[in-house]
Design a protein that fits this description.
- The complex is a heterodimer of chains A (122) and B (171).
- Helices cover 8% and strands 49% of the residues of chain A.
- By secondary structure, chain A is mainly β.
- Chain B is mainly beta and 171 residues long.
- Chain B has a single domain, classed as Immunoglobulin-like, CATH 2.60.40.
- Chain B is 13% helix and 40% strand.
- Chain B has one helix and ten strands.
- In chain B, strand 7 and strand 8 form a beta hairpin.
- Chain B is elongated.
- Chain B starts with a helix and ends with a strand.
- Classes of the chains: A mainly beta (122), B mainly beta (171).
- At the A-B interface, strand 1, strand 8 and strand 9 of A face strand 1, strand 9 and strand 10 of B.
- Strand 9 of chain A pairs parallel with strand 10 of chain B, so a sheet runs across the interface.
Chain lengths: 122, 171
C-alpha cells in the first residue's frame, strides 16, 4: 500500500493543469454594472506557457467578459489568479468559466487540456 | 482599611474575569473547500508508422499511447471528456483525404470500488468519450489515434502533430 502511495507521489502531477474553485461565485465589483469572480490556474505543464480564459453559457457559447489578461503566460510550477468581469446583464447566462492550455511545443501527438468551473447556486 | 481591601478585591475579581475572558476567546478554525480538477499529462504519445499510409499511436505499430490522469477532489462534481484527433494540427501538404479513428479507455483508477463502472458507463459520441467522475481520486486514461491516408497512399514526408483534447467540466 505504501509503495503504491509513494508511486503516486512520485508520478503525481508531473505535467498538470489545475483550476479552482469548482464553483466560483459572482460578487459586485467596484465598477458599476459589472460583477467579478476570481479563479486560480496552476501550471505544472512544462510544454505549456500560456493559458486562455473564457466565459461561456450552458451551450459553451462565449459570453462577453473583461479580464486583465484573457491569454496569460503562466510560468512552470506557478499559478495565476484571473479576475473575470462580466456585465450584470449577462450574469444569468454565464454558466462556465474555463481555462485552456495553449500548446506550443508538441512533437507528434499531444494533449490539450481545458478545465471549466461552473457558476451555480449551492 | 476595610474599604481599601474591598476595593482591591473588586479590582482583583474584575481583573480575573477580564483575563479569564481573554483566555476564553474563541479561536476560529475555518476551511474553504473549493474543489478542483487537475489534468495531468503522463505521456504525450507519439505516432508510429507501421505502413507508409498509416500513422498510429498503438505500441504494436511502433507508437506510444498518450496517457492522461485526472484528479478530482469533489465527488459528482466533474465530468471529463476526451476527444481524439480528427485532423492534424500541423502537417506537410497532404496528398489525399486522411481518415482518423480513435478511442479512450480507463487504464487505471485509484479507487477500484467506486470507479469500477467508469469505463462501462462512459458515453461515446463520434470521437469524444465522456466520463462522469462520481468519486474523488485519480483516474488514468489512455488514448489511441490512427490516421490512414486515402487510397493507401504514402504520407508525404515531414512532421505531423495532432492533439487529444481533455476537458474537465464542472457539473
Amino acid at each position: 500500500m505504501y509503495r503504491y502511495l509513494i508511486f503516486l507521489l512520485l508520478i503525481g502531477s508531473a505535467n498538470a493543469h489545475q483550476m479552482s474553485p469548482t464553483y466560483p461565485q459572482w460578487s459586485q465589483s467596484y465598477l458599476d454594472g459589472l460583477s467579478v469572480t476570481r479563479v486560480r490556474v496552476f501550471n505544472k505543464r512544462k510544454d505549456v506557457k500560456y493559458y486562455e480564459i473564457g466565459v461561456f453559457d450552458k451551450d459553451m457559447k462565449p459570453i462577453p467578459f473583461v479580464s486583465q489578461y484573457d491569454l496569460r503566460g503562466i510560468n512552470y510550477n506557478t499559478y495565476a489568479m484571473f479576475d473575470v468581469y462580466v456585465n450584470n446583464d449577462y450574469i444569468k447566462d454565464a454558466v462556465y468559466v474555463c481555462s485552456t492550455s495553449m500548446l506550443t511545443d508538441v512533437k507528434s501527438s499531444g494533449v490539450a487540456s481545458k478545465i471549466c468551473s461552473k457558476f451555480k447556486d449551492l | 482599611m476595610i474599604k481599601e481591601l474591598a476595593l482591591i478585591g473588586i479590582v482583583g475579581v474584575i481583573s480575573y474575569g477580564g483575563s479569564k475572558s481573554a483566555f476564553a476567546l474563541d479561536i476560529p478554525i475555518s476551511a474553504s473547500v473549493t474543489g478542483s480538477c487537475v489534468i495531468s499529462v503522463e505521456t504525450n504519445g507519439t505516432y508510429g508508422q507501421p505502413y507508409a499510409y498509416k500513422l498510429s499511436t498503438t505500441p504494436a505499430d511502433g507508437g506510444e499511447l498518450p496517457i492522461t490522469r485526472v484528479d478530482v477532489t469533489l465527488a459528482d462534481a466533474y465530468k471529463v471528456a476526451f476527444t481524439t484527433p480528427d485532423s492534424f494540427s500541423s502537417s506537410p501538404t497532404l496528398n489525399d483525404v486522411v481518415t482518423f479513428t480513435g478511442d479512450t479507455e480507463v487504464s487505471a483508477v485509484s479507487d477500484a470500488t467506486n470507479m469500477a463502472d467508469y469505463e462501462t458507463d462512459k458515453v461515446e459520441v463520434d470521437n469524444t468519450d465522456t466520463y462522469e467522475l462520481t468519486a474523488t481520486g485519480s483516474t488514468w486514461f489512455k488514448h489511441s489515434s490512427t490516421a490512414t491516408n486515402g487510397g493507401d497512399r504514402a504520407f508525404p514526408s515531414g512532421n505531423y502533430t495532432a492533439y487529444v483534447t481533455a476537458e474537465c467540466i464542472a457539473i
